[in-house]
Amino acid sequence: MSTTVLLTDGEPATRSALERHLRHDGFELLCPPATARPDVVLAGDETEVDRWRGEAPVIVLGRVEADHVDRVRAFRRGCDDYVARPFHYEELVERIRAVLRRSTAASVERPERLLAGPIEIDLATRVVHAAAKPVALSQKEFALLVRLAAEPRRVFTKDELLRDVWGYQLKARTRTLDSHASRLRRKLRAVDPDACYVENVWGVGYRLLGLHS
Fold first, then answer.
1. N or C: which end of the chain has fewer CB within 10 A?
2. 189: closest CA among 169, 209, 205?
3. pTM of the entire structure?
4. pLDDT tens digits for 147-174?
5. How many DSSP H helices and E strands does the chain contain?
6. What residues have CB less than 8 Å from 6, skipping those under 6 apart?
7. Which helix (DSSP H) or strand (DSSP E) does residue 30 occupy?
8. Do 134 and 174 lie in a common domain?
């Protein structure tokens, strides 16, 4: 089965070259507006990440005038990779294949549920229970909980969590993680006051289950 690529780049020369080469290499091209779900999206603008994130892996083809700020913003939006222009076609194809390998591995290895102590997470329905009681979480709170619950007693560094949950590829001075971790802790403790959740390990980062849980 061929790999379907949705190409949203509107720059004529780039689009024409990619369509020709990708078809020659056995990829099936989709063009906007596409009704079929693609295997990967080649986006000419980081705003396209919002449309396709969660539906298919997204590789942003950075504009010629783009700088590192544009790159960081694209990753913050949740893109899977970023390729600056001018780029080499062969490198782009290898990046497409690498993204597809990661996506396939994640879909195969990802369980339907995560259990971490008294916490149960249904990944398909995004429903969370703590001590058998439902917990309502925002999108990023849920993503942070899933990352911590994957290894509930491991201490994740702040850089790891900012990269894995928010897509930061560079060190950043931000209180985003701390504020989300604090809200997540309050929501879990509200339904299960006796447990130690989302422990802040000073100077390092966070873990889900504290020493006394």
1. N
2. 209
3. 0.53
4. 999 888 889 998 888 888 887 755 667 7
5. 7, 12
6. 30, 31, 32, 34, 38, 40, 41, 42, 52, 56
7. strand 28-30
8. yes
Question: What is the spatial distance between Cα 114 and Cα 96, in angstroms, rounded to a whole number?
Answer: 29
- 148 token code pair: 């911590």
| Distance of alpha carbon 80 from alpha carbon 68, whole angstroms | 16
Same domain, 96 and 140: no
What type of residue sits at position 182?
Answer: S
Boundary of a domain, candidates 65, 87, 109: 109
- Looking at the fold, whether 17 and 86 belong to one and the same domain comes out as yes
19-56 per-position pLDDT tens digit: 999 999 999 988 776 667 788 999 888 888 877 877 78
Structure tokens at 49: 């990440």
Residue that terminates a domain, selected from 66, 86, 109: 109
The parent domain of residue 79 ranges over 4-109
Please report which residue ranges of 11-118 form alpha helices under DSSP H: 12-24, 48-52, 68-77, 89-109
* Residue 97 burial (CB count, 10 A): 12
